[in-house]
Write a structure and sequence with these properties.
The structure is a single chain. With about 230 residues, the chain is α+β, with helices and mostly antiparallel strands. The chain folds into two domains: about 5-135, Jelly Rolls, CATH 2.60.120.10; about 140-230, Arc Repressor Mutant, subunit A (Orthogonal Bundle). It has helices spanning about 5-25, 40-45, 105-115, 120-140, 145-160, 175-180, 185-200, 215-220, and strands spanning about 25-30, 35-40, 45-55, 55-60, 65-75, 80, 90-95, 100-105, 170, 200-205, 210. A four-stranded antiparallel β-sheet has the order 1-8-3-6. A hairpin with a 5-residue loop joins β10 (about 200-205) and β11 (about 210). The radius of gyration is 18 Å and the shape is elongated.
Amino acid sequence: MNYIEINKIKNKINTLFLENALAANATEPFSLERSSLINLKEIKKKGYIFIKEGTVTKILSRPDGNIQFNLFYSFNDILGLIEPVDIPSFHFEYRAMTDITGFWIFLDWANQYIGENSELMIINLQREIFWKDLINKLLSLGATEKVYYLLIIISEYRFINEIATGRGIPKFVTHDVLSKVCGISREQVSRIISRLKKQGVVKGDKNGGLIIVNSLYLANSLDIDFNSVD
């Protein structure tokens, strides 16, 4: 099963989860401002966050001080459902990249629902494993390839999830964000993006983001095909 299929099934199953929670009066509206830190342990005392709008990143802080992007959650994702693979001396940090809106889904009702509908846990775990595999590849790449790779996976995620109508990078994914995710300097990121603009691979949009004009160039540079990943 490739990621597009996983995503379609995930959206269907997660939407049904929310619809049942709303019908059972087991929800409460939820919102969070951009850049806010999220305490996952505190969240799970109350329930799970069903994201309708916005993006949450999961950052892995290593003992040597390096910060590595680990995963991100957006439309129709459930925050807190899958436990992080918590390695001793590593620290996971969750932060809102945008304003977030959605619903609390209360713990007691949700846990009973999950116990009776195991496919909810299975499909979300498949989605998490898929993205972990992609990020693991990021670690093995050089500086230029890391930027290419991140541009592709963020753009494809947003397009596949229908967060965006085209392939591109929103303005909140700044050069500073890309540098921290890739573990390289901001200046290196700026040079790589500038070179891609000169080559006509990307261009700026009116909102301060990037439009990927030639995604095939990036994909061919890294031999990536989202339609054939098992």
